[in-house]
Design goal:
This is Helix-turn-helix domain-containing protein. GO terms for molecular function: DNA-binding transcription factor activity; sequence-specific DNA binding. This protein has 316 residues and is α/β, with parallel strands linked by helices. 49% of the residues lie in helices and 12% in strands. The strands form 2 sheets. It has a 6-stranded mixed sheet. A two-stranded parallel sheet has the order 5-6.
Length: 316
C-alpha cells in the first residue's frame, strides 16, 4: 500500500511533527492544518504525538532537534514573501524522514527543484508563478498529494482535510472521528478530490483541448464517453489526447476519467442516501463487481465499507 510507510509513523513514540509557519498566524491555511493536529496531540498525549511550531528563522538556526515530519506552511497570499534563508530552510526540511509543504510552501519547494518527478498539489492560484525548474514537478489538480515521503497540500480549506487524513492514516479513524466531532466537521475530503478551478486556471489559455476534454468527462459521468469519442469531440487524435494528459496530468485519459467517476461515487456514498447499486449506475458502472473492485483499488475500501464508515461516524 502506498500509505503504509506513512502509517508506520505511529510506531514512533513520541511522533514529532514540526510545522514551520512562514505566513500569517491567522490565515486559513495555517489554522486548518494546526488545529486538527493540535487536537490530535491533546487526545493522544505527549508520549505519542508532539506537534512543534517554529518560525523559519528559528528552524534554520536549530540544527540539533530531530523531527519525523516537517511541513513548510504559508498561505498562497504570502507566495512572494519567500523566506530569505529558504535554501537552508529547505535543506533542513529534507533531513526529516517525511517532509513537504502546504500552500505557498509548495511553490517554494518546487522552485528549489526538490520536487522534480514528484506528484505535487500546488494551489491553483499559484500556477502562474511556477518557473521552468519547478515545472519538472508533476503538478496535479488534487487537494493534496502523498508521494513516498513527500507531502504537499494546496492549502486553504483543504488544509483541514489534509490534516485529518494524516491523523487517520497514522492513528486511525477513531482519533479522526473525535477531532471531527470537536471541530463540527461532517465529511473529510480525500486526496483524490480536486481543486475545482485548478485545470481552468492552469491550462485554460495554454491547453484549451485539455480543459475541454476534462469538461466533457465531468459532464458525462453517468454515461462515460470512450477516449476516441472525447478525442473526436475536441478535434484531436487519440494519441495527441493521451500525450496531453500524460504531460500535464501525469495520467492516461481513461485512468483520469475512471478516477473522476469514482470520486463522484464516493461523494454520493457519503452525502446521499442512494443505494450502492444506484450510485454505481449513476457513475457509469453497469457491473457491481467492477464498481467495487475499481473503488477498492483507488480508495482502499469497498463502497459498502465507505457507506458503513459514514453511518458509524458520530454526528457533527
Amino acid at each position: 500500500m502506498p500509505l503504509a510507510k506513512l502509517a508506520r509513523l505511529a510506531q514512533e513514540t513520541p511522533l514529532r511533527v514540526l510545522l514551520i509557519n512562514a505566513g500569517e498566524p491567522d490565515a486559513l491555511t495555517w489554522a486548518g492544518l494546526f488545529q486538527p493536529l493540535r487536537l490530535a496531540a491533546k487526545i493522544l498525549g505527549p508520549e505519542r504525538l508532539h506537534v512543534d511550531v517554529r518560525s523559519p528563522d528559528k528552524f534554520a538556526a536549530d540544527a540539533q532537534r530531530h523531527w519525523h515530519l516537517v511541513l513548510l506552511v504559508a498561505d498562497e497570499a504570502q507566495a512572494s514573501l519567500k523566506p530569505a534563508n529558504s535554501r537552508i530552510l529547505i535543506e533542513r526540511c529534507r533531513a526529516a524522514p517525511f517532509w513537504g509543504g502546504v500552500g505557498a510552501g509548495v511553490l517554494w519547494l518546487a522552485d528549489a527543484g526538490v520536487l522534480n518527478g514528484v506528484r505535487t498539489a500546488l494551489p491553483w492560484a499559484l500556477y502562474a508563478e511556477v518557473d521552468t525548474v519547478a515545472d519538472r514537478a508533476v503538478f496535479t489538480p488534487n487537494l493534496f498529494e502523498i508521494d513516498d515521503n513527500r507531502l504537499t497540500c494546496c492549502g486553504g480549506a483543504a488544509s483541514i482535510d489534509f490534516a485529518l487524513n494524516l491523523v487517520e492514516i497514522i492513528y486511525g479513524a477513531g482519533v479522526q472521528a473525535r477531532i471531527k466531532e470537536t471541530l463540527c466537521i461532517d465529511r473529510v475530503r480525500g486526496k483524490e478530490e480536486r481543486q475545482r478551478v485548478a485545470l481552468q486556471a492552469r491550462f485554460g489559455a495554454l491547453q484549451p483541448k485539455l480543459t475541454e476534454a476534462v469538461s466533457l468527462m465531468e459532464a458525462n459521468i453517468e454515461e462515460p464517453l470512450s477516449t476516441d469519442d472525447i478525442a473526436n469531440l475536441v478535434g484531436i487524435s487519440r494519441r495527441q489526447l493521451e500525450r496531453l494528459f500524460k504531460q500535464y496530468l501525469g495520467s492516461l485519459p481513461s485512468r483520469y476519467y475512471l478516477e473522476l467517476r469514482l470520486q463522484r461515487a464516493r461523494q454520493l456514498l457519503l452525502d446521499t442516501h442512494y443505494s450502492i447499486v444506484q450510485v454505481g449506475l449513476m457513475c457509469g458502472f453497469s457491473s457491481g463487481s467492477h464498481f467495487s473492485t475499481a473503488f477498492g483499488a483507488l480508495f482502499g475500501n469497498t463502497p459498502r465499507e465507505e457507506r458503513q464508515r459514514k453511518l458509524a461516524a458520530p454526528p457533527a
